[in-house]
Structure formats: C-alpha cells, structure tokens
Design a protein that fits this description.
Elements lengths: L1 E4 L3 E3 L5 E8 L8 E6 L5 E8 L4 E4 L7 E6 L4 E6 L8 E7 L3 E2 L3 E5 L2
Parallel strand pairs: 2-11
Antiparallel strand pairs: 1-3, 3-8, 4-5, 4-9, 5-6, 7-8, 9-10, 9-11
C-alpha cells in the first residue's frame, strides 16, 4: 500500500488549496480515505473521510462548509480542497487509509 501526496503549497488568506493523494497497491474503491492535519506544535486533527466507492463523505463539524473531499477511481486519487484559507490552516495535511497507512504529508502554508 502506498499513498503519495502532492507537493507543498503556499497560499494567501482567503484563497483555496487542493491537495491530492494517489493510492497504489490495493483496490482504491474498497477502503475509505481519511484526511488528517497537524498544525505546528499541535496534535493530529481529523478532518473527515470519503468512501471512494460512491463518493460519500463525512466531514468533521469544524470543517463543514469549507472542505470538500473527492475521489477519482480511474486514477485512484483522492483530493481535499479547503477554501477561505486563514493562517490557522497552516499545517501538514495527510491522507490515510484506515489510519494505518499514511501519505507523506503535504505542507500547506497560508500567509500574506
């Protein structure tokens, strides 16, 4: 199982960012993808999950209305898009399969 994420992003406040997570080594549609982030000096924060089989999502309440998960089964790639970015969104964003397999993380920095 391998999850490979897109590279670091720098964004201005108020804009949006989209991070990808390409899965390999298993049947992508058979397992949920969770998204988790870690801000500097903070613990892990679960953002939610998506079922690539049917696109069903479950967002943590904190992020509802500002985050969108999508999954493209032909390319075995999951995406997280976060809008209306603010400085507090600066963090490393991780995708995970069942919280057992993890991507390498994507640094997102929000700064003017």
């Amino acid at each position: 199982v391998q999850l490979v994420q897109s590279g670091a992003e720098l964004r201005n406040p108020g804009t949006s960012v989209k991070v990808s997570c390409k899965a390999s080594g298993y049947t992508f549609s058979h397992y949920y993808i969770d998204w988790v982030r870690q801000a500097p000096g903070q613990g892990l924060e679960w953002m939610g999950r998506i079922d690539p089989e049917d696109g069903a999502t479950n967002y943590a309440q904190k992020f509802q209305g500002r985050v969108t998960f999508t999954a493209d089964t032909p390319t075995s790639t999951a995406y997280v898009e976060l809008s209306s970015l603010r400085s507090e969104d600066t963090a490393v964003y991780y995708c995970s399969r069942g919280l057992a397999y993890w991507g390498q993380g994507t640094q997102v920095t929000v700064s003017s």
